[in-house]
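Hey, can you fold this one?
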Amino acid sequence: MGTKTLMRCVLWAACLAAGAWTAASAACERDYVAVTGTNLGYNAFHDEEGRLVGISVDLFAELGRRTGCRITLEEMPPARIEAMARLGHIAILAIASQRFREGRIYVPLIAATTDMVIRREVGASSVAAARDNKRVTFGRIDGLTYGKWGDAFFAALDPSRIDPSVSPDVLYRKLAAGRIDATFGFSILYQQDLDRYHLREAVQTIPVTDAPRTLGGVVLTPWQFDPDDLRKLQAALLGIRDDGTFMRILTHWVGAETARDQVWRAARDGG
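Sure. Predicted structure:
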């Protein structure tokens, strides 16, 4: 099976085998493709049997059930998502930051706090200590936003102290091997990578207390939709968020405590 065919599976059984996923039967005027990052923590990753699972998988399964629309979930490297989304070539994007909301419909779902993940052997007790230690190399993922605070932090560093990676997999393999010393992340994403690469004992996580929460949600690009389909999908997404369904999905993957802390709340987070 070629890469293109693999990423655009439609039949349920074939998608499970190939690592893509499709929701429900078609009731919209058109079929739609939702895009998420490749192996992006608990948002979307492959289990031991090669099936694509995670928060976005469950979210779009529920969206398909509620609307009857056929939605295929595809994975892409973050840098490719960045380029395609800015050109308006992605119909549905999850879980995305607000930087893609101009001219689009944005449904916030998560309000993520930022942590520094750093190897214990470095001995840094704060973000400032790590920043000021010129021997500390920070890893970042190309095309992935780290929120306004995180993006500003990286921009202020000497470029020689930044090690780019094409995906979370590559970055956390580097962290496990000691090729980088630290990175920044959102707990809903990096917790799964800490487990995957057996990093719990090797690293410490330090909350970035001066970083504002970073919103993550679903982007709908209006010109990619039939108008009636767009209204139907937007209403269903708001229902999934507001009736507690998304909270239950989040709790399944990250636990009740993390879900309560990281889920979007109108009174606290606006958006």
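Confidence is low (pLDDT under 50) at residues 1-22. Let me know if you want another pass with a different chain boundary.
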